[in-house]
Predict the structure of Protein Hikeshi.
Amino acid sequence: VQAAPQQVAEDKFVFDLPDYENINHVVVFMLGTIPFPEGMGGSVYFCYPDQSGMAVWQLLGFVTNEKPSAIFKISGLKSGKGSQHPFGAMNLPQTPTVAQIGISVELLENLAQQTPVANAAVSSVDSFTEFTQKMLDNFYNFASSFAVTQAQMTPNPSEAFIPANVVLKW
């Protein structure tokens, strides 16, 4: 989780994505502590270095106070063409193995008129459900790897224990 953006202009922020070649999806979400100003939202851009090291920016979509999160597939974007973006005039440091997510605060009317790159479509509910199921399966497998029998437990009054069957029933 990256919660410390670099502010590059009054209304523009970037987050570094190290080792981006191994990232398939990016989740962008607002923490809920600071909302966008009334009538504003954030365009979400993906930037990666092309073969010559030049920054290529692509519009992924947007987030707003009413839609504070989105999942974007970026695995197919790393060879596409760039698009018009508000970060062009800025001299942002770019290294070959670091990509960036850019957030540009803009009017809601402008956000609705923008066209994101086609293969970055926000994941559908079905794939989100699939992701959630896999995440919970992995959580259960991880938590189960620490399982011990009641006879093996060392009493520790300051530590809480949750029976595995409670997680399974849930």
